[in-house]
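Forum > Structural Biology > Help requests

Title: Can anyone predict the 3D structure of Aquaporin NIP5-1 isoform X2?

Hi all, first post here. I have the sequence for Aquaporin NIP5-1 isoform X2 but no way to get a structure on my laptop. I'd be grateful if someone could post the structure tokens.
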Amino acid sequence: MQVLAFGCSNMGHSSHVSFRLPRTRCLPHSQELIVILPTSTSNQEVVSSSLPKSKVRSSWREGCRGSIWKQPLYPRVGLGAEFVGTFILIFAATAGPIVNQKYNGAESLIGNAACSGLAVMIVILSTGHISGAHLNPSLTIAFAALRHFPWVQVPAYVAAQVSASVCASFALKGVFHPFMSGGVTVPSVNTGQAFALEFLITFNLLFVVTAVATDTRAVGELAGIAVGATVMLNILVAGPSSGASMNPVRTLGPAVAAGNYKSLWIYIVAPTLGALAGAAVYTLVKLRGDDSSETPRQVRSFRR
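Reply #1:
Sure, ran it for you. Structure tokens for Aquaporin NIP5-1 isoform X2 below:
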């Protein structure tokens, strides 16, 4: 049986009126729903439910900010999801160029962009509610610097990302040897141009990620599509010039497996600086936008 109770306060006293409603399919027979409506002088609305905790869904935004890590089991589960997600991304993003080299141009630039973009989208949709699907040390550091993610969790996240990248790269080496060199991101332009490109495309990526991951006014359900499309766009723009890494572990793992460390520092420093700048700029824009009188939309869960 469900109980709907309305409570109001008057001069320090409270009263409740209860209504017994027919059983519906919304809640099991043993559960109770209580709705408390405050007086007109209160600005808060309290809604409590006896729904089991297992019904509560975590969102990608909570994962990105590390909120779900407050639960006892989530440190291990979150790290496992981050490892698997990064493994999938590096495997797919690196396999495209390797296949292109092995089969003499069979994988076009659009195909390489699709490999990375679709992998990002799939991983966000499948693991974003568990770990936040950072997949990128630059993103993790940028979120921590702007207080969207706890610093105490950064070393573990980065370790999971680096180890997943190395494992995925050696898995590819075992399958496609001796074509592993095709998956290493190396610049075809001078150092300054490569640095600028990596900075700018990572700036673009983190601007979008910060928008969909931290701003409740953004459409959370489309976060995976938005981030994946941004990755594809950046690869189409900068892929032929710098390799469009945007991610230190996208370059580090394949470099270790292939033994090619050419210009590695560019792909570590430039994406990290670009990520910090992109996240900071969106945060500044968001703060200025909060001054408007428009009421923000209700927070939506990334999971349906």
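The first strand starts at residue 2 and ends at 10. Confidence is low (pLDDT under 50) at residues 1-22, 24-58, 67-73, 295-304.
Shout if anything looks off.
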